[in-house]
């Protein structure tokens, strides 16, 4: 992506999250969301280095990744609102949005779970490619996004081991925002996050996660390495979450970050950093286009029907098998 397109992605994610928070407050989005505000440079930069056929797996804080990979913001907003017109017919919601056609193999509410999925998907695509040209599978790369709170999860470490052992074309991206919910990273991580990957022979680097162009440049190098058979990489992106861990904090008022810390973290805003690289007239045009798009997304979500409870058991089985009705149902 060029500078303007990177700005567009950052701006889209920021305003999408702000409009989604409005729908949480109005009750249209039930249960709340995990806002991605402040971390947009990572999704924009990493996904800016990917092709349409590449794969991503995401986290409970996944809206930014899904949007940066190309998902329709209108249908994404409907998904968050639990509407049948959403990306996944309202069944995925905020933490499980997916679009397989765009290589989005799902956000995931289980901490660290996406690592194994990404490694497995990348390994499978490589195996298909090796089977012959009839498969029409290219040199796909997979990216797994995860937070600093996931780095001691066994499933992620197992994914590191297999990726390093088999040189799987997967890129592990740690979004280190300093907190696992409310626990500071220094209280939960022994050693270093890059050291976790290096222990499995995976090259790792730490970058400024607030600058989209820095993130994209490092991601591009990792993608080239993966496509050429060099195996996995880990990128630790140092970032800061401007908003709550979850919107419940807007009412709970948890006190784990000082005002001085919040001000210091917010002083390096990805929107400002990338916006400074784009001509003002281009910024104005992009901002206006995004406002129009998200206004339509909100209108569409609110006006869309909710799923019919009679269809609640649909899509539970790949075969279409329905659960037999019990005698008391």
What key attributes describe this structure?
329 residues; alpha/beta; 5-stranded parallel β-sheet
Describe this structure in words.
With 329 residues, the protein is α/β, with parallel strands linked by helices. It contains 13 helices and seven strands. It has helices at 3-26, 40-47, 63-68, 73-80, 114-131, 154-166, 185-188, 193-198, 212-227, 249-252, 259-266, 270-275, 280-303; strands spanning 55-57, 142-147, 170-176, 179-180, 183-184, 204-208, 233-238. The termini are far apart. The mean pLDDT is 93.
Please tell me how large the radius of gyration is: 20 Å
Report the strand count: 7
What overall geometry do the principal axes of the alpha carbons give? globular
What is the overall pLDDT average? 93
Query: Helix amount, in percent?
Result: 40-55%
Roughly what fraction of the amino acids lie in strands?
Answer: 5-15%
Number of helices: 13
Oligomer: single chain
List low-pLDDT spans.
none
Instruction: Kindly report how far apart the N and C termini lie.
Output: 54 Å
Q: Order of strands across the widest beta sheet?
A: 1-2-3-7-6
Tell me the structural class.
alpha/beta
